[in-house]
């Protein structure tokens, strides 16, 4: 979600961002904890923010969205590599990015993993890679497309899910009436020869962003049950809409506003959904087994430190980390207590108001679980917080 009018001020701001982020991270959003208290969560243990790479490949694609840490070594991908996709092309038009880059932590090098044809015929509307991406234990990469012809929702297509092998080659596409602009980061339960994917779809009903576009309460969360035969691409065995009725809205500045973050509880009995329009986190019961929609489920927490919640992950202790769209903070939530613990600044870019507004998207845990990767789309960078 990049604004078309970004200035060179980003470069100056980014040069001092690390110092600002460290200073800001020293203060909690709420009341400080006693010095001797044990950490309540992961954010308290994060001390450093290290900019790793600029994510722009040779074709100029920008606006990094999804982040996936490779669970296995396969093809050109090494276990622990960080895959990042791009939503915008070199002209900064939203819904037109077509590349995935691969950052290798041990060599600190970035390579181009895949370039997907913009006019991919089997993907309705073409290609604009979204925050929906995962890599399975079998080596297959699945990425969502929320495409546009001109960078606006007026020309958006329904999109699809694209299956790539671990060398970046297209194996197949997945499209159906249940898939309309796969938008948010996926929640995945992967058992090797079969897997379950959850993906939000924010395109139903949404069209142009002129004037004051309406909110359509038609966004869904779709469960895809996959079989993965040895050496063959995943096969969809069943599609189930497990949640529906979330709000989605076209937006000139950010393309779409809709449900984005998805995360499973540690026992897989709950699915958490970040509802950007409702400024809340909701819970869907029995996501793996239900055969009907739970609607929007029940509300876990709302407002407070949340400012249009976006990407979301679960920490090793079962907390939720949620990036904000309307400022540069990440919020940690204890879902058992239904309590927002605190927020920390990740992006203090004062070129936006509030600082970091519209800059944060993908987030992913490090393999050791002691930190996380995130992207700053205003300066097209991948950052490590530890």
Reported CATH architecture: 6 Propeller
Structural class: mainly beta
Indicate the mean pLDDT: 91
Give the tally of β-strands.
25
Helix/strand order: HEEEEEEEEEEEEEEEEEEEEEEEEE
CATH C-level: Mainly Beta
**Straight-line N-to-C gap:** 26 Å
Helix content: under 10%
* Annotated CATH homologous superfamily: TolB, C-terminal domain
Radius of gyration: 19 Å
- Spatially, the strands of the biggest sheet line up as 10-11-12-13-14
Shape: globular
CATH topology: Neuraminidase
Number of discrete helical segments:
1
Major sheet, described briefly?
5 strands, antiparallel
Estimate what percentage of residues fall within beta strands. Answer: 35-45%
Work out the count of structural domains.
1
Low-confidence stretches: 1-35
How would you sum up this structure, described in words?
This protein is mainly beta and 386 residues long. A hairpin with a 5-residue loop joins β6 and β7 (141-145). It has one helix at 9-25; strands at 49-54, 62-69, 82-88, 99-104, 109-115, 129-135, 141-145, 160-164, 170-174, 187-190, 194-201, 216-227, 235-251, 255-257, 262-264, 270-275, 280-285, 298-302, 309-314, 320-324, 329-334, 339-345, 360-365, 372-376, 381-385. The chain has a single domain, classed as Neuraminidase. The protein starts with 8 loop residues before the first helix and ends with a strand.
């Amino acid at each position: 979600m990049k604004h078309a009018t970004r200035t060179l001020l980003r470069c100056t701001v980014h040069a001092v961002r690390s110092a600002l982020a460290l200073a800001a991270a020293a203060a909690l959003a709420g009341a400080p904890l006693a010095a001797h208290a044990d950490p309540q969560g992961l954010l308290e243990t994060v001390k450093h923010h290290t900019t790793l790479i600029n994510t722009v490949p040779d074709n100029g694609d920008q606006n990094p969205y999804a982040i996936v840490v490779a669970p296995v070594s396969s093809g050109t991908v090494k276990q622990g590599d960080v895959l990042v996709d791009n939503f915008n092309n070199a002209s900064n038009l939203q819904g037109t990015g077509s590349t995935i880059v691969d950052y290798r932590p041990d060599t600190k090098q970035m390579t181009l993993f895949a370039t997907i044809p913009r006019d991919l015929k089997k993907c309705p509307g073409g290609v604009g890679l979204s925050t929906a991406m995962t890599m399975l234990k079998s080596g297959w990469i699945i990425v969502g497309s929320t495409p546009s012809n001109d960078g606006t929702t007026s020309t958006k297509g329904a999109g699809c899910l694209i299956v790539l092998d671990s060398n970046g080659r297209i194996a197949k596409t997945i499209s159906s009436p249940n898939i309309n602009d796969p938008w948010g980061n996926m929640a995945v339960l992967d058992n090797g020869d079969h897997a379950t994917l959850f993906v939000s779809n924010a395109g139903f009903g949404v069209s142009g962003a002129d004037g004051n576009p309406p909110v359509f309460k038609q966004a869904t969360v779709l469960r895809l049950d996959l079989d993965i035969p040895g050496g063959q691409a995943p096969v969809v065995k069943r599609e189930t809409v497990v949640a529906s009725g979330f709000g989605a809205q076209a937006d000139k500045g950010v393309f779409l506003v809709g449900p984005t973050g998805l995360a499973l509880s540690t026992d897989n009995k709950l699915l958490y959904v970040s509802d950007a329009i409702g400024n809340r986190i909701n819970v869907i019961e029995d996501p793996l087994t239900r055969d009907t929609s739970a609607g929007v489920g029940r509300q876990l927490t709302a407002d407070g430190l949340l400012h249009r919640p976006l990407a979301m992950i679960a920490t090793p202790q079962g907390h939720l980390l949620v990036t904000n769209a309307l400022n540069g903070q990440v919020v940690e939530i204890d879902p058992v207590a239904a309590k927002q613990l605190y927020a920390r600044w990740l992006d203090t870019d004062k070129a936006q108001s509030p600082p970091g507004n519209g800059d944060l998207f993908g987030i992913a845990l490090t393999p050791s679980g002691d930190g996380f990767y995130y992207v700053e789309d205003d300066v097209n960078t991948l950052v490590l917080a530890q």
